[in-house]
Write a structure and sequence with these properties.
By secondary structure, the protein is of the alpha/beta class. Strands 3-2-1-4-5-6 form a six-stranded parallel sheet, sandwiched between helices. Strand 5, helix 6 and strand 6 form a beta-alpha-beta unit. The relative contact order is 0.19.
């Protein structure tokens, strides 16, 4: 089995998250993509705006129409409020799926910050990586042939580089922070959110939605 792990705040989950998960599944022939809302992201100063339960529920709605996608609680908040680390999530996934091929799905800009993550070398060994382009981000900038730029600056070994798969996707600029701001001032986000997620936000009065 080929399993993708797609962690994120999902605050809220939006169409770009859905397109990213589907593009990764299509490109690498994944049997399953686990979308895992994160309790506390160590590289973000501010915490999530919606509760973990609300983010989990919204992400479940986002995934409801694609049988390859499912929600995972593997990155649920720790009782002591400590950060969630990807290396720990991968260890739990490996214990649950000992014979599966594991893939981590990330945006290109997040992947370039890999040296700041906990145990980056162990991360590269623990799973293969699907690196997605994002709006305004030139995928060529993480091509190793561009010496000194992007992915080349990570100094990956040939073995590590072989475990990184570049996938172009996302031709529209959607951000969770932009959605939250529009909802705060009462502007429609219909094109950025799936209908079920939009209805959930309105019903639960999240992000000051009216």
């Amino acid at each position: 089995m080929r399993i993708g792990y797609f962690g994120g705040t999902f605050d809220p989950p939006h169409r770009a998250h859905l397109l990213a998960a589907q593009a990764a599944a299509d490109a690498l022939r994944l049997d399953r993509v686990l979308l895992a809302p994160t309790g506390v992201q160590p590289l973000k100063d501010a915490g999530p705006h919606a509760s973990f339960d609300d983010r989990l529920a919204m992400t479940r709605l986002l995934c409801s129409d694609d049988p390859r996608l499912e929600v995972s609680e593997i990155d649920a908040p720790h009782p002591d409020g400590s950060p969630n680390y990807t290396i720990d999530a991968l260890a739990r996934l490996r214990a649950e799926y000992p014979s599966a091929d594991l893939f981590v799905i990330v945006g290109a800009d997040s992947f370039l910050s890999l040296p700041r993550w906990r145990d980056p070398e162990k991360l590269l060994a623990a799973a293969e990586w699907i690196v997605l382009s994002r709006p305004g981000f030139d995928l060529n900038s993480i091509d190793p042939d561009h010496s000194g730029d992007g992915i080349a600056a990570l100094n990956l070994t040939s073995e590590q580089r072989a475990r990184v798969h570049l996938v172009e996707t996302l031709d529209e600029d959607i951000s969770a922070s932009g959605i939250r701001e529009r909802l705060r001032v009462g502007v429609s986000c219909g094109k950025s959110l799936t209908p079920t997620v939009g209805l959930y936000i309105a019903r639960m009065h999240l992000y000051h939605a009216t």
